[in-house]
Amino acid sequence: MPALAIVLILSGCDREADPAPQESAAQTEAGKEAKPGEIDRSHAGDLMPAANMVDPEGAVLNLGALQGRPVLMNLWATWCAPCVKEMPMLDQLAADYEDELNVVTISQDMGDPAKITEFFEKNDIDSLPPWIDPQLALGEAIGAATLPTTVMYDRSGQEVWRVTGELDWSSEPAREAVQQVVDTP
């Protein structure tokens, strides 16, 4: 099944938008269908998977251990142009929120983990640790069909909203959406 997830992810990233949007069950705040790059609340209440991620040196992060403060989890890859564009903004978000929010970027790259470290160094990403999904199973676990996919979880590990596709994380609407979750006890 992870192979199917890889095919779906590969087919979605870095493509031109279809001229006619496909039907989707994703819902925005106003109850309309969410488009790529819009906040989607259709998965609200889903629990964060208790999966283990690793860094290039082999350190392990259990996502379940992050409960207690909000988590913004981003699935990305070095070969995904929208993902690469988002990384500096996510790095700045992590720096701005320090102890109030866990910003966790998880690479879906296959092969040598050193390419993740090289990407972080080359792009001056210094507020985010370079986590990797070693089994490439996280996308399937959360129902992500494309990259980037970013999911906001509350303090108890329940999904609040997600964004499929690129988002300007420095924009006022994005910052307000993050702040609302951070401010919720």
From TrEMBL:
It holds the Pfam family Redoxin. Signal peptide: none annotated. It comes from the Bacteria. Residues 17-44 are annotated as: Disordered. Residues 30-44 have a biased composition (Basic and acidic residues). It is found in: Cell envelope. InterPro entries: Redoxin, Thioredoxin-like_sf, Thioredoxin_CS, Thioredoxin_domain, Thioredoxin_ResA/DsbE_sf. PROSITE patterns: THIOREDOXIN_1, THIOREDOXIN_2. Gene3D superfamilies: Glutaredoxin. Residues 42-183 form the Thioredoxin domain. Its main location: other. Keywords: Cytochrome c-type biogenesis, Redox-active center. PANTHER family: THIOL:DISULFIDE INTERCHANGE PROTEIN DSBE, THIOREDOXIN-LIKE PROTEIN HI_1115. This is TlpA family protein disulfide reductase. It comes from Alteriqipengyuania abyssalis.
